[in-house]
Amino acid sequence: MSTIGEVNTTNPAVGASLTHSSTMGKDEFLRLLITQLKNQDPLNPMDGAEFTAQLAQFSSLEQLYNLNDQVTAFNSSQLTMNNMKSVDLIGKEITTEGNGLVVDGDSAHISYILDEAVTGGTIEIYNSDGNVVATLDIGSQDAGAHSVEWDCSAMERGNYSFEVAAQGSDGKNVTYAPRMQGIVTSVIFKEDGVYLAVGDEEIATKDVSSVR
């Protein structure tokens, strides 16, 4: 829209409209175009082709603004639908990264992924005070995902955590990735996304790896 830049913007009405924002909208463009027509030299009027080109620019600008409004409305509607769908996760068991463990029944599943096969190892379970409350022997296991059931019927309900210490054939500790599992009790909507409440934990839906 370089042609518009040639307009005499000393006109107070035009100057005022330009000081409000450095971004030209369709209303500002139309005002500038009208002002240009009013102030053109009667003996040297604007070329017809040039005027047609400027009208085409205005038409394209208006279409872009309307398209942007439609996309914004669609995104808002899609976000609302996604938020409502996330409510269906209440009561479902989810899996995410982390070594948290929620005890709310007689048993709990401890999940983790081993980087390589192990010949033996243990799982230590800690209470919220950081004290070891149970130790489980996992024996030999192949590389990959594993889930061990823990009988926690004698434990108080609440949040626990676990650590895996397993050794490979060379006797060295094998690295692992812990997985947290728990039942979703509520859905929390925040400015940065949707979170699922599992015990005292708030887990972003984008971090959920599985649901069952």
Keywords, separated by commas or semicolons:
four-stranded antiparallel beta sheet, 3 helices, elongated, single chain, Immunoglobulin-like, 35% strand, 212 residues
The percent range for strand residues is: 35-45%
Rg over alpha carbons: 32 Å
Assign a percent range to the helix content: 25-40%
Gross geometry: elongated
In the sheet with the most strands, the strands line up as 6-3-8-1-12
Domain count: the total is: 2
Task: Please identify the top-level CATH class of the largest domain.
Answer: Mainly Beta
Give the overall average pLDDT: 80
Class by helix and strand content?
alpha+beta
Distance between the termini: 56 Å
Topology as H/E string? HHHEEEEEEEEEEEE
Overview of this protein structure:
The chain has 3 helices and 12 strands. The chain is α+β, with helices and mostly antiparallel strands and 212 residues long. It has 2 domains: 2-86, no CATH class; 90-211, Immunoglobulin-like. The strands form 3 sheets. A 5-stranded antiparallel beta sheet has the order 6-3-8-1-12, with no helix packed on it. Strands 2-7-4-5 form a 4-stranded antiparallel beta sheet, with no helix packed on it. β9 (186-190) and β10 form a beta hairpin. 15% of the residues are buried.
